Amino acid sequence: MAMYTNHPVSALPTAPPRETTGHLLLRAWCVLVLVLALGGVGLVNAVGPLVAAIVVACSAVVSAIVWIVVRPPVAVRRLPWLAFGYVAWAAASISWSAWPAASVLTWLLLAITTFQALFIGAVLTWRDVVRAVASAAKWIVGLSLLFEVVVSVFVRGPLLPGFVVPSERVDPIVYWSRDNLFDGGRIQGVFGNANLLAAVMLVALIVFAVRLAAGAPRRTLLIGWMAVAAFLFVRAGSATAFIAAAFVALVLGTVLVMRTARRPGERTRWYLLYAAVGLGAGAALWFGRDALFGLLGRGADLTGREGIWADVVARADQHPIVGWGFSTPWIASEPLIDGWIVDHGQTVVQAHSMWFDAYLQLGGIGVLLLALVYLAYVWRSWFFAVDRPRWDLRADRPHSPPTLLPTLIGALLVVLGLTESGPLLLWGWMFVVLFGAKIKQTPLVGVGPSEQSLSIERGELQRPAP
Q1: Lowest-confidence region among 147-161, 217-231, 447-461
Q2: In b/e form, how buried is each residue of 139-168, taking b as 16+ CB within 10 angstroms?
Q3: Integer Cα distance of 170 and 180 in angstroms
Q4: Residue 342, phi then psi, degrees to nearest 5
């Protein structure tokens, strides 16, 4: 006799909901945009600045069209207005710039980067943002390793930008790859610069670790990606990146400790303790830099950076309020830049410090605006990481791993900005705008109008946890 029951055990199994094709394509496009930001220098080395500029401009047009079609909800009052202020001041500097053509070109790059950051934050949820950054990082990790392997196995010698094999020995500073993969030397990946490779590999390690903590699928494969990124990070041999990694680890430990606070005022003791540790570590780093950088194989003058800083400040002091005009990076063909500061026979195209660079280009006003941008970003990302998610009277909800990403990336950018100008352009500036805007628009992961209307992960809206 046939038996019928409503017991769930007898129910037919159903396939898990799938993401729509449109959403998969949207996230894939965002991954491509992030790849262009993370590996933009590699694109320039591969196809030249003109083709790279065309690709970047076309990507902005496509993103604008997609934004119009998707029409994600955006709270205008919660946009990153301080970042807009910096961009606006950079645009205004074109009127008095000593290198107007360079100012226009580089400002367009800044504006496109800002727009793309807002676009990604508007069309993706928090979890999708983390997944997209992780996917883009995998592409850069894989391409960098593949590039070095191909050069060492097939070219068997140095390679110049544009895939040109040099006919004679030139200064290694101009090489795209130095063919050091198998001889133990520093490798440069697709960037042609070991410091840039190390910084992006640290970004990859951070986002992979966040994904791992969030319970990402295929964990073994993800651990493999982390191992490759760690290998490239170590082989890049960047002293700044090693120090940044230590600082990121310190910030992570501090966040985890702060999350354990249960009573008002309990965090204050930890803040005082970490402030004392931070000041002590900073003093030890400065006064003991001779020994420290000697251990890392670098000079106490930070590989010539102190001399560059002195030249930059001397010129910046001539226009201390408004600066000489925006140009990030510097354009080597400009008469006032060409041959001004030379390293290994090549014109230097950055101040090797985002603060000195901002002072040179935009004066004290630019430095103030940049400081406000970073202060707001660090402040919001910090409490985004340490505070429990809360939208009602319940105060015991668990923390979400994606909330760690903005503050850890911020820690990396703060340290990197001391000796590099990278945080002012491409992925550095993109992450500041992307995460800063996303935190303001949706301060809770999975909660809020934009998160719920755009969340298609697992085929359904993300709802607040009960």
Answers
A1: 447-461
A2: bbbebbbebbeebbeeeeebbbbeeeeeee
A3: 16
A4: -120, 135
Cα–Cα distance between 63 and 351 in angstroms, integer? 32
Q: How far is CA 125 from CA 76, 95, 373, 444, 454, in A?
A: 18, 39, 23, 10, 6
How much of the chain, in percent, has pLDDT values that exceed 70? 85
- Count CA atoms within 13 Å of residue 284 on its CB side: 8
Least confident interval from 345-354, 371-380, 453-462: 453-462
Question: Rounded to whole angstroms, how far apart are CA atoms 285 and 279?
Answer: 10
| Backbone phi and psi for residue 235, each to the nearest 5 degrees, phi listed first | -70, -20
SS3 call for 1: coil
Q: Indicate the burial class of 339 (C-beta count within 10 angstroms; 0-12, 13-18, 19 or more).
A: exposed
The residues pairing with 343 across neighbouring beta strands, listed in sequence order, are 346
Could you give the residue ranges of the DSSP H alpha helices within 188-330?
Answer: 194-213, 219-236, 239-258, 266-287, 289-295, 305-316
* d(C-alpha 248, C-alpha 202), whole Å: 9
CA–CA separation, 17 vs 75, rounded Å?
A: 30
Residues 329 and 44: beta-carbon distance below 8 Å: no
Neighbours of 395 (CB within 10 A): 10
Q: Which residues contact 126 (CB under 8 A, 6 or more apart)?
A: 400, 402, 438, 442, 445, 446, 451
Considering the entire predicted model, what is its pTM?
0.90
Which run of H or of E encompasses 118? helix 100-123
Cα–Cα dist 95/209, whole Å: 45
Beta-sheet strands, E only, within 294-369: 342-343, 346-347
Contact 215, 232 (CB under 8 A): no
pLDDT bin (cut points 50, 70, 90) of residue 292 is low
- CA–CA dist 449, 451 (Å, integer): 6
Q: At what angle do helices 426-441 and 404-419 cross, to 10 degrees?
A: 150
Does pLDDT of 162 surpass 70? yes
Please answer whether residues 462 and 442 qualify as being in contact, where contact means their C-beta atoms are separated by less than 8 angstroms. no
Alpha-carbon 112 to chain mean position: 15
Tokens linked to 122: 């508007």
329 and 425 in contact (C-beta within 8 Å)?
A: yes
Q: What DSSP string runs through 381-394? A: HHHHHHSPP-SSS-
Cα-Cα end-to-end distance for the chain: 43
Residues 6+ away with beta carbon under 8 Å from 10 = none
Other CB atoms within 10 A of residue 33 CB:
24
Are the C-beta atoms of residues 116 and 32 closer than 8 Å to each other? no
